[in-house]
User: Fold this.
Amino acid sequence: MSAVEIRAARRTAVVPRGGAFRDVEAFALAAALIGPVLADAGIAPEAVDELILGNALSGGGNVARVAALAAGLPAGVPASTLDTQCCSGLDAIRLGAARIAAGEARCVLAGGVESFSRAPLRAHRPRIKDEAPAFYRQPAFTPWPEREPDLADAAAALARLEHVTRAEQDAFAAESHRRALAAPPTEEIVPVEGVVADPFARRLSPALLARLPALAGEAAYAVTAATTAVEADAAALVLLVPAGTCGVRIAGALACGGDPMMPALAPVAAVQALCARLGLRAAEVEQVELMEAYAVQALVAIRRLGLDPARVNARGGALARGHPIGASGAILAVRAFHRLRAARGRALLAIAGAGGIASAMVLSRGETEPGSPWQD
Assistant:
């Protein structure tokens, strides 16, 4: 088996639902990245063996295939769309890397895309004549309705269980926004609709945070709009190839499942399993990109994994950008790639998905690379 590296990585800005991308279809967001990623890598479209995209909301079909054709990839390039909800983008990269490691491909485009703004309305088909369609917001993620809590309720339950107060969650959200506002300009964003930076980050004052009503949970541990990532539109894409001598390598990656009642805990188990496989301690990793779907989710992972908060989402996380479900995991990879190109070391990525699933990945560049399960 061969080692795998990310040769190039780009993303669009992350724009909250109803913003500048409100009229842009999901496939078009992804298509906008294919040319720039190939150009960055110096690879011709004809050399691409496959495109794999994560997506959760496009309503069926194969958004990856539509994006490939829209971007001008040869018609002979196959494309697959993967839905593991929030984990989709990172899982697409993980599966693309596995294809290369197994010798089945040499050049794979992988990532994720989501458009909350253009997502179709969803309804259950009537069972009897004259019955109206039953519209729904999200599908089932378990076969047991009593074991499938609203995600905000699950986050609030976790806060109560782990004694993560509303004040701690508020402070974490404010810091995420502060870091995003202070972050230096980045080359990771491809302009779409004239948007060249993530527009959502702002200063969150203690007074503003205190005024927000609870979305879920009792007062002391409540989840609010500030401690929940907003729905957003975005795409992110990486180019995967057999590893060379100076690229950002995928040291390892895996997915795992956990308790559907506590989906935010699944990344902890995923990171622990991956670090055990690599002979690595999570606390030793220089950079961490951890999904902030909810502040409490990130805070519990930091606590249970013994992470240094200063190393986690050092340039702001999803609370300061937004959560484009199928793209969010791939965005973690794009951000880590660009930071590793500037500073050698390792990056740990982790994200949770509805239904109690999670995915984790370690990237590395330089002398600190751990042993790789992709290598002999």
